[in-house]
Each structure stands twice: as structure tokens, then as C-alpha cells.
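Data's thin. Show one?
=====
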Amino acid sequence: MSRLRALTQDLKKAKDIATQDVQPDQVVAGEEVVEGRTKSVDHANRVRHTLYLPKDLSYKIRIEKVETGLDMSEIVTKACQLYFELKDEGKI
């Protein structure tokens, strides 16, 4: 039950942060404010994909986005890079 309580608190925290107005000094470098939300500017070197993730992993990515200010694409890119590095080293 404590895991559920922790997840509920994390979700409330994420919702509180997500509903706050974004101020210009809060914008992460490389992003612009679009209707109160941030939007990544660097699309030139990216290809759009649709991924279906388990709910718990999707939740963690959204929380990470809120806590770090990183774009979801950046979080997934870092995770994929780490995966392939470990795979190349024979660790997975």
C-alpha cells in the first residue's frame, strides 16, 4: 500500500507542477513556450516514432520530464543510448 501512496503523491506533484504557468526564466535551454507548455525546438535531426509503453514506464517518463524539464524524446533517447552501450559491451 505504501507504493501506491508514493505513486499517488508523485502524480499529485506532477499535476501541480504541470498546471503551473511556465515563466520565461523557467524554460530549459533549447525549448520554447507554446501556450504555457514547453516544446522542443530541435526536430531537424529526429524521426517521429510511435511507441507503446507499459503504463508504469510511461508514468516514470512523465515524472522524469516534470522533475528534470527534459523533453520526453530526450529521456527516451538517453535510455536507448545507454541500452545500446551496455549491449555493445556485452552486459545485457
